[in-house]
Each structure stands twice: as C-alpha cells, then as structure tokens.
Write a structure and sequence with these properties.
7 strands, globular, alpha/beta, seven-stranded mixed sheet, Beta Polymerase, domain 2
Length: 363
Amino acid sequence: MNAPDLLSRTLRAPDAARALSMGEWDLLLRQAHHAGLTSRLYHILRQAGCDEAIPAPARWHFEAADTLAARQQVAVRWEIAQVKKALGTAGIPLLLLKGAAYVAAGLPAAQGRLFNDLDILVPREALDAAESALMLAGWHATGLSAYDQRYYRRWMHEIPPLQHVQRATVIDVHHAILPDTARSRPDPARLRAQAVAVPGLPGVRVLCATDRILHSAAHLFHDGELPHGLRDLSDLDLLLRDAAREADFWPRLVARAGELELGRSLFHALRYVRHFLATPVPASVDVALARFAPARPVQALLDAVFTRALAPMHPSCEDRLTPAARLAAYVRAHWLRMPPRLLLPHLLHKAFLGEDAREAKAA
C-alpha cells in the first residue's frame, strides 16, 4: 500500500485519528470524498469513540456526508417499495443485490453507504416481463448508443440501465451476476434458490450471507473500472465481519465459492481486504483457498496492480505506476469477462469508434 493512503490506515485503525494534524484531517477528508467513504468513515470513527477528535472544520463535512447518506437510504427504501409494486404486476419476485440489499436487510455494510443505482436479480426468462413492468412504472432505457444497447442485450448479465422519467433513479436488472461469456459463470438459479426473505418486508429477498459476499467479490474483480474500489473492499470487510459471527461461516463460504466457480475471486477479495483493512481471516481459510491462488510471479504482478488500483482515487495515493495499474485492472477485468474473439473488437470500438460517436453526438 502506498504510504500516503491515510484513509485505509484510519479505517483499519480509527484510534490513530486522535493524533492527526489539521493538514492530515484535510487530506483524510479529500481521500474519503474521492473514495465515496466520508459517511462510512464517520460511522467507524463514532463506533470507535474517536469522533470527539474530529476538529470543527472537518466535522461539518462529515455531518453533511452523513446527512446525504441517510437521505439516500430513505430514498432507496421508498424505491424498493416502488420496484416491488411494479414487478408484482407481472408476478415477478423482488430479489435485491448489493447496496439496496444491505439497506433492506439492515446490515452493517449499509452504514454510510452511498448509492448510484438499485440492483435486482430476476430469472432470465422473466427479463422481458420485468422490463415491460418497470417501463410501465416509469423506468426507461438511458441514452446508450446502438452499439452499447446490443452489447448489453447480447453479451452482458443485465439489460441496459433503466432510469425513472421523473425521479431519475436508476435500476440495473440482472439475470446473472457475471456475463455468459465470462470464464466463471455462477449459476443464477443456485443464487436464487438460497436467497432469504427480509424480515419486515414481505415479498423482498436478498442473497444469503455467503452469496452476497461472493457476489461482491466477483463484482469487484470483474469490473473494469474501480473508482470506488476501496468502498467495495469496505463493504466486503463489513459483510465478512458480520457473517463471521456464525461458527460455521468460513467453511460454508469456501465450499460455496467452489460451487459457484468463484474461488479465485474470493482468494483475491480476502487478500486485498486484509491488505487494506486488516480484516481477520482464519489461517485455515488460506489453506483451503490455496488451490485457487495464481502462480507466484502472476500474484506479484497482481499485487503491484491492485494495491494501486484499489487505493483511493486521489493524487496523494498515486505514484508513477498508478495509471498503468488502473489500465491493467481494466484490461484484466475484460479479459475475464470476454473471450479474445470478442474482447479485441470491443476494446477497439470503445477506444476509437465509441469516442468518435460521442464526439459526433456532442457536435
């Protein structure tokens, strides 16, 4: 980890905040803002009893971020009710993913969580009915190019994002958690089969504890862009600490990773969540996951990439190799998601033709 990554150090050892100078508080806030973790950091400082150390000029920023996060959670709960109502007209059950699921289930990972969209999982055979029901309720496809529309519908594990015409809220409708073209293809039927009901929200389900951790890991290491990589690691940290309170959690997690073809994703997730946030993981888990580890030279290269690409996207956390690391993470993610015969044309289109199309549209 780069030495100037003050945010990671404070998240894993909040007591250190008591000794921060005003300049360091300023830097910490800037890093947290770029990582989307200001409110989460505020929660962690309060839970550790360190919030009295926050100087007044910095406290205003923390409280404003906390107010925004609280408002977003109220909005997410309301949107969940609207989506449930819309899908109910087509007889489609609501299965929430990622941040919306954390909020609905009241998980610690919801604390200070900011949202860009609401993610749901529906059976592939129900995609058309789900899209039609949501369109009737006011959600419509955003202004993607014809190429991107085809790309989503032919290759991706979700349809193009739907945005509400009045509230501008965005829904991502998934039929799987990874594309059909990916090297790992977790069976979405297995995920749905072990989904659990949310107490107090009849008709709303979320992935079980092991599956939401594995989904978070798969999403993080198959996503080509990592502007909020540390936020996603923080989600994983909180999900793991919460689920680990169950005595048999770790063996179940490892076994489930094997069932869902996500052993490599879990290996990387645990490696980097410990690197950045010191998440406690039993040694027996390392032994069980050793078969998923890449060769040592490959792992050394991945460490050089992800210790940079997952750090806060702020100049203070960058070195001369950081741009190359982010590009490598982007290409690697696409390599995992698409075979070479599809990957090369796609990257060329996004690098050249896609940019030309955007400029022509802007003109």
